[in-house]
Amino acid sequence: xxxxxxxxxxxxxxxxxxxxxxxxxxxxxxxxxxxxxxxxxxxxxxxxxxxxxxxxxxxxxxxxxxxxxxxxxxxxxxxxxxxxxxxxxxxxxxxxxxxxxxxxxxxxxxxxxxxxxxxxxxxxxxxxxxxxxxxxxxxxxxxxxxxxxxxxxxxxxxxxxxxxxxxxxxxxxxxxxxxxxxxxxxxxxxxxxxxxxxxxxxxxxxxxxxxxxxxxxxxxxxxxxxxxxxxxxxxxxxxxxxxxxxxxxxxxxxxxxxxxxxxxxxxxxxxxxxxxxxxxxxxxxxxxxxxxxxxxxxxxxxxxxxxxxxxxxxxxxxxxxxxxxxxxxxxxxxxxxxxxxxxxxxxxxxxxxxxxxxxxxxxxxxxxxxxxxxxxxxxxxxxxxxxxxxxxxxxxxxxxxxxxxxxxxxxxxxxxxxxxxxxxxxxxxxxxxxxxxxxxxxxxxxxxxxxxxxxxxxxxxxxxxxxxxxxxxxxxxxxxxxxxxxxxxxxxxxxxxx
Length: 498
Fold this sequence. Notes:
Layout: E1 2-5, E2 9-16, E3 21-28, H1 40-54, E4 64-70, E5 73-79, E6 84-85, H2 86-92, H3 97-116, E7 129-131, E8 137-139, H4 144-147, H5 170-175, H6 180-196, H7 206-215, H8 230-239, H9 251-259, H10 279-287, H11 316-330, H12 334-352, H13 357-372, H14 376-394, H15 399-414, H16 418-434, H17 439-455, H18 459-477, H19 482-497
Antiparallel strand pairs: 1-2, 2-3, 3-5, 4-5, 6-7, 7-8
Helix pairs in contact: 3-6, 3-9, 6-8, 11-12, 12-13, 13-14, 14-15, 15-16, 16-17, 17-18, 18-19
């Protein structure tokens, strides 16, 4: 086997002797705890995120064959991709405008599917994009950054923000906060670099580079490459907006804009074989015609199938579903666990009522496993329903009700729906204060709100929230507490920019 060093570990190129095919094996560097042992939480999260990523079915994402641990190393076995990294393209040649747009458009098609499944790449860069000889683009390392960073702050144990400084969105550089718009910002940096030939945000150090993303206004493309269309220049500037809410709303929006600039792709000798009859292009030509021709009057209408008969409910089904789900969860098979629980919840709720204590217990299992499996929008709906139904029986100040409300907001935040999450967290904080909830919980909620405001680009709101929080944190935990230190660092940065 041969190997290649990477940003988060090494990639080994080998051969699957069982199925007789070439493979790539990525070994991931693992942060160690203070006692020198590997971080088990990180290992568990890596397996979970790898399984979520493996469900991302898209021709622009390499197939994941396996994942696990080898000794104290994490590994991911993937489809081996032949092609040229976009980083090499930038170094070796001037990329035609149409091809730069085409590469970015294909990345958008991947992001559209990923973001719909609440997956954020978090480390898009030219080295993670591969242009293949048939002209297709593969997006590499999906889920790696998410898997190797803690879920709360997206920071490593050493305090380093996960990602690559040269392509990092301002909110990611400032607080480690990421969402779909963070990926779009990174794509904007890549597209700008593909067209101009250099990364305009690069500084002498990683810290200086991150400061440039946070404070340096981007230079318009046509000042560096005259033949770039004005509309493409405007799109890049839109992607490079400093705050997430000023960027395009979705990858689909960016994709639609990019199509105008890559409808006719020129020859790209040495990188794309335009003459050979590639099966992928043959396949795409047919698929691209779907929906373009209205159905003729003589075409048969879809067959209307009868609705399935209602399920027969047995009380023992709930216990069996929980048992099966627990076994699946123990193996991090969260999607299957959610399917098992959902299949039991629906008939149980119809037979016993959605607020029945046993049904509530089953619904809690379902909501939790949906969140663990990365199905954040479905999880938000389940947590919201639980909060409403339990509040009617136990009261709005019930600990579980408050927990469900928090998890609903966290689900929206994880799905990139920051505005909804902030609104819900603000209401929850008001109610927790009114109900005189434990101070540790309210302090953590205030910290979460401040970081989320910062990640959303609301620097004024974040400064106000965290400035009010800091003295209360010091009084409760002392000057040396990690949360005190981190909030102080963020405030120093915010105050330095004002």
